[in-house]
Design goal:
The protein is built from five helices and no strands. The protein is mostly helical. The protein folds into two domains: 1-67; 69-116, no CATH class. The longest helix is centred in the last third of the chain and has 25 residues, at 69-93. The chain is flat.
């Protein structure tokens, strides 16, 4: 019984071609989104669709959809750890100065953009 359910999840090449076309359509949407000039739409299309595409690739092309559920929990735990690492280091790495260091490249960019006008939204 378990083998039958496991084999039922395998798909032929036509299924993967359909997933490919869905991914391609999402790519087109994520490219067109920023061209419209709306900041919120850009964020949704850039990051939201990227997350959806990554999950589709993991589920279908990496065959995580047919794996046991704990594999997904491991994946989500790993992503949570990466996010926590980013939160822990972002406060220091996104500043142009620290106690014992100075990011000269960031200061040059700040000086360059002080005189320029902000881009229209």
């Amino acid at each position: 019984m378990a083998d039958h359910a496991h084999n039922e999840e395998h798909h032929g090449p036509a299924f993967y071609v359909k997933i490919y076309w869905v991914l391609l359509a999402l790519l087109v949407v994520s490219i067109i989104g920023p061209e419209l000039g709306n900041r919120h739409l850009t964020l949704i299309t850039a990051f939201g669709i990227a997350i959806v595409k990554a999950l589709m690739v993991a589920a279908y092309f990496m065959h995580l959809k047919i794996e046991k559920k704990y594999i997904w929990y491991m994946l989500y735990t790993m992503l949570l750890m990466v996010f926590l690492f980013f939160l822990g280091t972002a406060a220091d790495t996104m500043k142009p100065d620290g106690n014992n260091w100075r990011n000269e490249a960031a200061h040059r960019l700040i000086e360059q953009h002080k005189g320029s006008t902000p881009a229209p939204h």
